[in-house]
Amino acid sequence: YRVPNLLTYMRCLAIPVFVGLFYLPAKYANAHLYTGSTFAIASATDWLDGYLARRWDIASPFGAFLDPVADKLMVSTSLILLAGRYGTIVAIPTLIILAREIAVSALREWMASRGERNVVKVGIQGKIKTALTMVALTILLFVPSAVQTTALLYKIGIPLLYLSALVTITSGSVYFMAAAPALM
């Protein structure tokens, strides 16, 4: 029972690490490599902990609670850091992604209070949204802060982030449509 939960704890502990790396002074030329690598490894543990819990049939209620919290903390922290670095171009998808996360979390909580949590359980679109967002953020975190908007990784990461925001909207709408009878 411990390995999947330990991986989730590690993901939580990685957050202050990549924040610290993100803000390393410019004299540390490879800080972006450390930041991107830390986020990429932490993102990979998201898949790994779920895989191990299912494979070993050791899913726990606490793990089911902590895993999405760790993901949301990691993703929201990265989005805020990158919005601070790049401004409006990242702030717009950040707003969309964070608003959806808050709305869907509130919807799940409300549906659970009604005994209907399974109506809004995580589906394939939510998993695609998470993976796409983590890939986009990883790419953007690998962009050297001195180069910024001229970097190839930036030119790949920004469209991926906007695609992630689009998938975020569509996946969120799936949950709200599923809950519509209870909402009406």
Key terms for this structure?
CDP-alcohol phosphatidyltransferase; 184 residues; Four Helix Bundle (Hemerythrin (Met), subunit A); mainly alpha
Structure, explained:
With 184 residues, this protein is mainly α. Helix content is 80%, strand content 0%. Helix 2 packs antiparallel against helix 5 and helix 4 runs parallel beside helix 6. The longest helix has 32 residues. This is CDP-alcohol phosphatidyltransferase. Keywords: Lipid biosynthesis, Lipid metabolism, Membrane, Phospholipid biosynthesis, Phospholipid metabolism, Transferase, Transmembrane, Transmembrane helix.
CATH topology name, in short, is Four Helix Bundle (Hemerythrin (Met), subunit A)
Element pattern in H and E: HHHHHH
Q: What would you call the structural class?
A: mainly alpha
Count of separate DSSP helical elements: 6
The parts where pLDDT drops under 50 for at least 5 residues are none
Strand content: under 5%
Shape: globular
Radius of gyration: 17 Å
Major sheet summary line:
none
Question: What is the average of the pLDDT values?
Answer: 90
SSE arrangement:
Layout: H1 2-22, H2 31-55, H3 61-86, H4 88-113, H5 124-141, H6 152-183
Helix pairs in contact: 1-2, 1-3, 2-5, 3-4, 3-5, 4-6, 5-6
Main location: membrane
GO molecular function, one term: CDP-diacylglycerol-glycerol-3-phosphate 3-phosphatidyltransferase activity
Keywords: Lipid biosynthesis, Lipid metabolism, Membrane, Phospholipid biosynthesis, Phospholipid metabolism, Transferase, Transmembrane, Transmembrane helix
